[in-house]
Amino acid sequence: MLHEAPCCNSHPFTTIPRSSTMASFGSISPDKLFRMIGSSQSPEMIDVRDAEGIAERRFLIPSCVWRDYGRVADFSDRHAGKRVVVVCSKGKKLSEGVAAHLRLVGSQAEILEGGIEAWAGAGLPLVPIASLPQQHITGGTLWVTRSRPKIDRIACPWLIRRFVDPHARFLFVSASEVEAVAERFAATPFDIDGVYWSHRGETCTFDTMLEEFGLRTPALMAVAEIVRGADTDRLDLAPQAAGLLAISLGLSRLHSDDLEQLQHGMIVYDALYRWARDAMDERHDWVSHGSKALRP
């Protein structure tokens, strides 16, 4: 049976599951890996399941790309010196073998303990392969949208690169030419009227991607509410929406190059996600952090 994408109403990720045992040497537990995905500490992730394994569970762990384990000698050099987590069905021969090969070129390679089956068993999010544009399970998806991005068109690339395809590329073109460019250059259009990856009702494209990619975790849903409020001029949806709008408009004035703006905007959403995941309850005031010697 295929693992169903989790429903946001049940909030299966409200608390991050903890393993009852520590991962063995050269491996990482699902709960620890889940904490790393979407952060600056996230390793490169490779799914090396064979065709039978993919057919049994047509999902990928967030930010995973698929590689043919039989061609490890061809792709190992690109991971030299990097931290990599290798995933197979149960964390056995395929991931063990590929990880060992990667260590030969200096990679800090680990396997996912228990493989994708243990990940699914822990109720952690899985991206349906069918949702990936043109079935690009090997990564390197190509997307196209309108130039001069502000909010949704920065938030969506951030989500894709951090949780779906770290090798994704983004084209920014004139609004009138998005669909034509998509057709001629085999790119996936997003955040324009009349395409699949766009606003639906009162929600924005970021919401659509969370739904279709099976990523409706509490932290990402909190980010989505802020993005929706800023992107649709409903600043009452979240107290942080006005701040995101201000920062986004400021970035668009600072950078005339869309790709440069995207690069800097990624940091904004990195910080917003980490706040939503770990720091929503924290408060700050000058008095509590000031030097006692300076207080009256």
Read across the widest sheet, the strand sequence of neighbours is 1-6-5-2-4
**Structural class by secondary-structure content:** alpha/beta
Average pLDDT, rounded to a whole number, is 90
Q: What separation lies between the terminal Cα atoms?
A: 66 Å
Identify the overall geometry. Answer: globular
Unreliable parts: 1-22, 292-296
Percent of residues in helices comes to 25-40%
How many strands in all? 10
Cα gyration radius (Å): 20 Å
Helical segment count: 12
Q: Give the SSE order as H and E letters.
A: EHEHEEHEHEHEEHEHEHHHHH
Largest beta sheet, briefly?
Answer: 5 strands, parallel
Fraction in beta strands: 5-15%
Overall description:
The structure is a single chain. By secondary structure, the protein is an alpha/beta fold. It is 39% helix and 11% strand. The protein is built from 12 helices and 10 strands. The strands form 3 sheets. A 5-stranded parallel β-sheet has the order 1-6-5-2-4. Strands 9-8-10 form a 3-stranded parallel β-sheet, with helices on one face. Strands 3-7 form a two-stranded antiparallel ribbon. Helix 10 runs antiparallel to helix 11.
